[in-house]
Amino acid sequence: MPHPVLMPKKGNSVEECVIVAWKVKEGDRVEAGQPLAEIETDKATFEVEAPAAGQVLKLLRAAGDLVPVLNTIAVLGEPGESYIGESALPVPPLPSGEGRGEGLGKGRVEGNALTTPTATAVQTPPPSSQPSPTAGGKRGNAVEGRGENRVGASAPLHPLPLGEGRGEGVCTGTGKLAASPRARHLAAETGVELKTLKGSGPGGRIIERDVAAAPRMSPLARAVAAEKGWIAPNHGAGDAGRVQAGDLVAPATAAGPEFEEFPLSGVRKRIAERMMASLQGSAQLTLSATANATALLKLRAGIKERGKELGLGAISINDMVNFAVVRTLLRHPGINGTLSGGVVRKYRTVHLAFACNTDKGLLVPVIPAAERLALSALAEAARQLAEAARTGAIEPDRLQGGTFTVSNLGQLGITSFTPVLNPPQVAILGVGGIEPRPVRQANGEVAFEDHLHLSLTIDHQVVDGWTAGLFLKDLKAAIEDFELLLVN
Amino acid sequence: MHDLIVIGAGPGGYEAALHAARLGKSVLLAEKQYLGGTCLNVGCIPTKSLLHAAHLFELAQQAGEAGVVIQGKPSFDMAVAARRKNQVVGQLTRGVGSLLQSAKVEVVMGAARLVAPGKVEVAGKTYETRNVLIATGSRPARPPIPGLDSPSVRDSTGILELESIPPRLAIIGAGVIGLEFASLFASVGSKVHVVEMLDRVAPGADLEVAAALQKMLKKRGVEFSLAAKVKRIAGGTLHYERGGQELSLEADCILSATGRAPVVQGLGLEDLKVDFSPKGIRSDERSRTNVPGVWACGDVTGRCLLAHAAVREGQVAVNNMFGQPDRMSYRAMPCVIYTHPEVAWAGLTEEEARERGIEFTAERKPLRVAGRYLIECDKEPGFCKVIMGARHREVLGVHIIGARCSEMIWGAAALIEAELRAPDIAKIIFPHPTVSEAIKDTLLAH
């Protein structure tokens, strides 16, 4: 007669144990009392001994499985003996008092449901499709009176049927879903689906804190997330932050491939090479300052108002900054130059390069001998070059020979940034946005005045910080007294 | 300096005041008329009291079938029913008063007005506060119908004061209020005629359920003129137009039940730049108005004119104002029409589900599938209808017509709010024998 081997009940509070390892395999001959498996509760390790001598006919659970106590984990018997049949195996009666009393007042999802992902917000006992002494005992509470009838009912000999997310029952073992008993408890109590979690324990094992950190989800949200692979935020719109279906977000990949690939070529390749060459071939240092922009803004307002009638084209803040840069550079030849092949060139003329965004990427057109141009002419030259750069009509000659570069990101709301040198030039100016700053007035009160952010990157190989500072100081003055600059 | 001043002691206002007081806040509640507001004094409670009396009267007439022998013919005494109604109202409003007292809410009677940010004037005295919750509710709307001020016309407040049963009652409006009074007076012997502008009754309810309700009321003698526009009232004559035809009907009493209008005037909302219109104060899902420190809940927001919605909105307001983030969800708001038979629903109607392009299935089951319904209400062909998502079988809407549905609709609302699916609900135990079993049966129909 076949003998079931049950998961022993080690203490009153233990509801399930993990099979740590089998010490026998199917077909082995065992003696009564021989250790069959090593099992583990939350607290300690025990051995399961053979209840009788015989052959191991079947191991029903794998190492790693969490099995409710008093569930069958193996069958012993005589060789060739059938253990699958309509007639159930005899099951030792439960210890007295076990049938009803144990489960009372526990208020927990019973063992079998512990690993079933759908046993969630509604913690009702599972249907009676899984008769087991354990189940009978635990349910004594819910179906009062019926519990007793189940005591002594046959133990299931097959792994429980799959279906409706319920029969998954005890984990399939084989390490596929490694989770600590405490994690499983919490998962069952809170309705967290273990398979949606990433374990942070040893070997990726899911531990309690992983479950605790998981978002709580409604059954529908869980179903939708599982079906569509959508992601739950940590907090949802439901009660106490519970995630509802409407909170789920499609992963970025849902709309198409996660990325597109392009070979590095053309303008982009040139930019890449030059940027790397710049950063690897020079000693870059950036200094920053702000300049009071009141004069610039006032002038621009005047031009906007009366420019047309005076026959002036559009003149932007950027044009004015360029103009101030050109004038200031004439007095700082050390900033206006190049370093190439061990030779430093300090220019007496300013070939002003300016960064220009185009569809193909960054282009840097050059306005030659910019110091010869009045403000309006400088603005017009910049406008035409930028237009040509954007349409792709710019001549290659116009993209080289610069002695100093200006890059302006102020219109994007960038306050300040670190520009990268445009080799072989030894300096570049980054122009940021205009922001109000508190300024103490002559009468001691504080007023807000508009300031422009300036950042100057120099090649410290040939330009000293002091030299650069002097340039920035003069540039700041030129911008602040822009009208005087125009008089000159 | 108070933590909160609540304006209006209806369910939204007094519950919010109690909630805040229980959180240890200093709360002042200003009320210009009566504790309990419309709901307790001239709304839900008195109406339900009279409806209950009318229902008992009907049952008494049918009692013989169940083996209860009543000597002579039962009759209905409106005056006694009204007395009972007034007793109930008195008991409940006194209850509110003692609740507020024991929670140490300071109650001030008088009209309140926001005079400055954080300053509220009540009965000539100015109080300072960190928060103001406006819960001034609504009053019966007065449609621009010539002759509406005729003495035969009453609104939902005035009709509660009737001491005798009008032989002929005309009702303008087939919304919840109109239908409830139609049911009430039809039960006690009035000849009721309902005139409604829309081509359906009970707007907001599932159309199929609304049609069933209309049919059942019709069977009890209520006449309906739908898609009809009331032109004028002259004495006891109601003139209306339907399908291009000028029609009229005579009545001893005319009930104007054309909806309710939020009470937004005289509160000083303009001065504080609170965003409002005749349709109500605009509030968000956290019960905030556009002005920091000014909150609103209930009918005055014009959003959802139900006492229980107001209570929850007030709770949300209080939670948010005292640092506990909370938000209102309207997607499973339980709604009830206390006619005989009752109608109750929560969640989406079939029409709404269709409008939103949701893939759904609609399941129906007669309530007779539940043994208890068969025992108690076999005369009413009530049914349960469930709207479920086609893919996951989650419950989107539950609609029931038939006795006792008002008492179980909260459960349906919970199913929807919890986003439970039919397979999840299959695991919930419903008590037997109860009418509520019909919900489960409908859900698990296939």
Radius of gyration of CA atoms of chain B, rounded to a whole number:
23 Å
Distance N to C terminus of chain A: 114 Å
CATH third-tier fold name of the largest domain in chain B: FAD/NAD(P)-binding domain
Judging from the principal axes of the Cα atoms, what is the shape of chain B? globular
Spatial strand sequence of the major β-sheet of chain A: 9-18-17-16-12-15
Query: Helix share of residues of chain A?
Result: 25-40%
Task: Kindly estimate the percentage of residues of chain B that lie in beta strands according to DSSP.
Answer: 25-35%
The tally of strands of chain B reads 24
As a whole number of angstroms, the C-alpha radius of gyration of chain A is 40 Å
CATH level-1 class of the largest domain in chain B: Alpha Beta
User: Ranges of chain B with pLDDT <50 over ≥5 residues?
Assistant: none
What profile does the largest beta sheet of chain B have?
A: 7 strands, mixed
Largest interface: A-B, 20 and 17 residues
Structural class determined from secondary elements of chain B: alpha/beta
